[in-house]
Amino acid sequence: MGGELPTQVMIEAISRLVPGVIQDAQSRQQESYRPELGGTNIEHPQYTRPQKIA
Fold first, then answer.
1. Do residues 21 and 11 touch, judged by C-beta distance below 8 A?
2. How far is CA 27 from CA 12, 31, 36, 43, 54, in A?
3. 33 with 39: CB under 8 angstroms?
4. How many whole angstroms from its chain centre is CA 26?
5. Where is the tRNA methyltransferase TRMD/TRM10-type domain (predicted)?
6. Per-residue pLDDT of the chain (54 residues; tens, 9 = 90+)
């Protein structure tokens, strides 16, 4: 429990912002969470069960 996992998550998140780290530039444009879109989730809703059980 030395904080390795949170450190890896931060390195991954920050390095994705560096130009050239992501080989396909379109990948970043298709992220499911983008602050420039108001911080909303742009993917369709996903459920593990129906909202209304018949």
1. no
2. 15, 7, 15, 14, 39
3. yes
4. 14
5. 2-53
6. 789 999 999 998 899 888 888 887 777 666 666 666 665 666 666 667 666 766
